Amino acid sequence: MKPKLFGSSGIRGVVNKEITPTLAHRVGTALATIHKGGTIIVGRDARVSGPMIEGALFSGLSSAGADIYSIGLVPTPITAWTVRNLDANAGIEVTASHNPPEYNGLKIFNEKGMSLTEKEQLDIEDILENCLYQLSEWDGVGILEPLYPLDQYTEELILSIELEIEESIAFDLFNGATCTVVQSIMDEFSIQAEFINGIPDGTFPSGNPEPDENSLLRIGKFMKARDIDIGFGFDGDGDRMMPIDSSGHMVSPDRALASFAAYLVEKNQGGTVVTHVGTSMNVDEMVESEGGKVIRTPVGDSYITETMAESKAIFGGEPVGAWVHPDIHMCPDGILSALKLLEAIKDMEMSLGEFVNRAPAYPINREKVVCPNEKKIPILSKIKSGYQDTFNNIKTITTIDGVRLELEEGWILIRTSGTEPLIRITVEAKTDQMVKEYTEKGISLIKKSFRDIR
Predict the structure, then answer these.
(1) CATH of range 253-356; options 3.40.640.10, 3.40.50.300, 3.40.120.10, 1.20.58.760
(2) Model's pTM, two decimal places?
(3) pLDDT at residue number 1
């Protein structure tokens, strides 16, 4: 059985519609019930509704006996890191990542600082659905204390990463949670960096905090005007990063992931890399060429980190810039990933562009089709039963997350979004013409499935 409340990135929705103080209170009470009180870490991103949701969480957690460390406005990975560093029972980040400002959500971590497994999510949903809360006695309610973990987090990064760079660096912080920490971390590494959109603002005046090709044109122009070598953009809660080269353009996220994964496998003389079903086939080629192995999972960092733990993987990641470095902790971490990437290109004595271009470049296209949440399951069911009429010469079929078809000249993935009312389609092939053909067929199949359920 799949969780109903949790998506691929936790619980998320529009504030005071899907995400309410009442829901936050109930989730907090349920989490504390599971841990019989325990110690819970709570952080939040820069969203306007964050303090409201956070306050309701505090109330729910405390009512079931949990002691709470409030770490304030911090990136999601620092919340996850703090859970493991303090041996806490769990952690919660109040965040909706890259979504527009009217959204918020809850990202919950287990005692390992990892996103909850499906079973752990279902345990919470069972308590919510059946009102199985266990409130404490009056003298057993939890206490709330502030905590400031940035110094300890930064110290671990400094001890783990060897980095002396001469290149000029720029960051677009998108007015998100990284605004509170990135500059001090760069100072500790003696990196002279420049910043834009560096003041936290939950209305996101610079646009939705999503570092994609279009939004990163802004930092690209900034870099070119100042002759800056390398840039990075972070999403709203700082668990993802996207690199920009000296030309001012976002590098291919798939090629960056593949090249970095291969670099680690080479340094490690082997090892397992975990990624999801929507990642380019160049990851397999690069990793296997260095003697490594690739395991694919459904989309979502919870699936990736769970599989990483099971397989003792040396690296995991998604092409949206969510990279996991298990030598530090088991949560995607944009700041850590940027530093690790800088360390790698310095070690290889390459520019960012040269490092990324080690990976093969295949045409890849990612599109989305609006789909109401209530229609996702029937639409996907129609797609799974009808793809044979649209595609032929299918080599293999994977259905762990939507439908992925391996075809003669590439592959296509059709899956429902776990965070938005969308169906996502990803196509990769050896030629632009085949990408165009597969994309058109995929969209045609989706439209036909819509017609069939009406």
Answers:
(1) 3.40.120.10
(2) 0.93
(3) 67
